[in-house]
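Model it.
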Amino acid sequence: MDGKWSWVKAGVALGILNIIIFLSGNHLGTTTFYSQTTGYITTFFFPEWIPISAWTKGTCGGSESLSVGWQWLFVMGLFIGALGGNRTSKVKIPKEEVPKMWTERFGDKPRLRFTHAFIGGFLLLFGSRLAGGCTSSHVISGMSQMAVSGIVFGMAVFAAGIPTALLLYRKGGNI
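Modeled.
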């Protein structure tokens, strides 16, 4: 073993975390963190917007003022844990600005890669929040509870993702 977790260990750990969160009356998801953070920033500049904002809806805990919930702490813990794991790991992974697969298809342009990643991430987050959940919440929590919405969403992700990946990374010429 090269020091990395196998997919089995990671899956079991995620399952246990999901059960603990479910038993606490919540669901595994992270978009609330982003909407709360956006809400704090927005409140600073435009305090009258928060009560009517679709983006921050449901993040105030039933009150007009924003509050930091467990999801906010969860995301900060993910960041701090990943940083700590990276810094203390004995496994040295070579850093690359642009993955080989991207370079073969689109060229060695780090700014283009980061711009695409940022825009894609923003659109995914924005759409997820407007839909009332996020990918991890719908797929991990929803499917584990056999919720129809989670199963449909999971199927839709793969139905859209696989053809998109095949189109973007097919062999031959550039777009």
